Amino acid sequence: MLGADSAVRLTSSEAVLIAGSAGAVDALRQLLPAVPKDARIPVVVVVHLPPNRPSLLPELFAPRCAARVREPQDKEPVSAGTIWFAPSNYHLLLERDRTFSLSVDAPVNFSRPSIDVLFESAADAFGSTLCAVLLTGANQDGSLGASAIRREGGLVIVQDPSTAEAVQMPSAAISRASPQIIASLPEIADLIHQATKAP
Amino acid sequence: MQTAEDLEIRLLLDAIFLRYHYDFRSYSPASLKRRLNVAKLQMGTTTLSGLQDLVLRDPARFAQLLQFVTVQVSDMFRDPSFFAAFREKVVPELFTYPSIRIWVAGCSSGEELYSYAILLREEGLLERTTLYATDINPEALRKAELGLYGIDRVQAFTENHRLAGGKCSLSEYYTAAYGSATFDRTLRKNVVFSDHSLATDSVFAEVQLVSCRNVLIYFDRTLQERALGLMKDSLCRRGFLGLGSKESLMFTEHASAFRDFAAGERWYQRC
Question: Hey, which of A72, B188, B255, B262 would disulfide with B249, CB 3.0 to 4.6 Å?
């Protein structure tokens, strides 16, 4: 299923982004344990959450993951070996100097954090060395960002809508961003493992 | 390698500084670029060079651009536990001062300013407090002075106020009419609204408390150091600094000038 070109992109990527909305927490339960303890690159996760309370995702996933799990502070280096979760009620962006930035700009696609905001900043910062995964969700956030990553030469993986709890997000990304890979969650888990494992 | 767009951004920011003395050159690049591109489209140009042409020649267009570049969307009592910590831990310390001065730096349209004013009134301190509310955006300051917010936002404000230990219903503090909530003008009786830039201006008063939340996230490391230096120099000994929930003094050169006061809630105290 994986072409030679995509295989190279996967193992040479410098960051993995994973994003989703409705149903994404369950999907992440299948994906994040695939990231090894000594992950060679950072994994950055955005999930749409209600804005008025702290995200409980780091607490939820820490016991299930071999890699370190946490939320970034503003301007913290995007270091490897870690699964980074976007905090609730902030946009999360990646800078070219490989640090995180946060913003309280207006919601995008009714969402803060917005997937487009992370993906577009990451496309600018990481160029072709990026691997982005878009999961289940009930709105279209992420498809413009996935297009930007595609345009910069990065690898875009979208969950097969027939396996997604909510189809709108993956379907929109497939029609707008022409991802290289459309796959089920077990297949995506394997791809994430390949991208993050030590060589 | 610098792209054409990178150069356009640099030239635009230089031009704005030279023409209008607003300095965005040390803002966090990723979100600034995003906001500039939104402004470009909304203001009807196709390139950032075109945007530069527009704002250089017409101050009204620059005023318009400023609304895109400095737009922040906050809530009253954002992060209620931060305001609960203010009430429970900081207020008892402020009580010891015969008169209190508080600086809300980067107050934007005033959500946070009114949060403090309401808490201070509930704690019986507002009458002897002067609040300095500063921002670089005159339009935002004007909104802050009006104290007028969309009624659709008030439900979230009310819930946050309750979680922050509010002593009565938030509706005691505003009147609702025509889709807006107008906050009680006596809340801002002791507020001084003023144009002030953390990037280019200097210290203007000695204060016992500085609140600067979710403003530093817009600055790069260099400008963060400058801004924190201003706040440090404005604070009296044992004065308080409140930051946003994802901002900290951890990696700054000013860390040693402060001690954790309620660090889980981002309250620091000047040594």
Answer: B255
| Cβ contact B246–A75 (<8 Å) | no
Question: Picking from A101-115, A149-163, B65-79, B194-208, which range would have the lowest pLDDT averaged per residue?
Answer: B65-79
Predicted TM-score (pTM) of this structure:
0.95
Cross-strand bridge partners of residue B174: B183
Q: What domains does chain B contain, in order, with CATH numbers?
A: 4-69 (no CATH), 80-270 (3.40.50.150)
Contacts for A54 with CB less than 8 Å, ≥ 6 apart: A87, A88
- Spatial separation of the C-alpha atoms in residues B229 and B254, rounded to whole Å: 7
Locate all alpha helices (DSSP H) within chain A, ordered by sequence.
4-12, 24-31, 57-61, 115-126, 143-151, 168-177, 185-196
Compute the nearest-CA separation of A164 from chain B (Å).
30
ipTM over 0.85: yes
Mean pLDDT of B186-214: 97
Whether the Cβ atoms of residue B161 and residue B77 lie closer than 8 Å to each other:
yes
Find tokens 């913290």 and name the residue: A76
Rounded to the nearest 5°, which phi and psi values hold at A48?
A: -65, 130
pLDDT in tens, B132-155: 999 999 999 999 999 999 999 999
Determine, for residues A125 and B160 on separate chains, whether the beta-carbon distance falls below 8 Å: no
Contact status, residue A133 vs residue A145, Cβ threshold 8 Å: no
Best probe of the A interface among B71, B246, B248, B252, by most A CBs < 10 A, is B246
* pLDDT at res. B262: 92
B228-256 residue pLDDT tens: 999 999 999 999 999 999 998 987 999 99
Chain A residues close to B83, C-beta within 8 Å: none
Question: Which residues of A are designated catalytic?
Answer: 21, 48, 141
- Identify the H or E element spanning A15: strand A15-20
Residue B177 burial by Cβ neighbours in a 10 Å radius (0-12, 13-18, 19+): exposed
* Model confidence pLDDT, tens digit, residues B59-100: 999 999 999 999 778 899 999 999 999 999 999 999 999 999
Contacts of B219 in chain A (CB under 8 A): none
- Closest-CA distance of chain B to residue A117, Å: 8
Six-digit token string for B155: 């439900």
- Tell me how far apart the 2 most distant CA atoms of chain B are, in Å: 58
Structurally, chain A folds into a number of domains equal to 1
CA distance B142 to B128: 24
Cα–Cα distance for residue pair B91/B109, rounded to 1 Å = 24
Where in the sequence is the domain holding A80, given as residue range(s)?
4-196
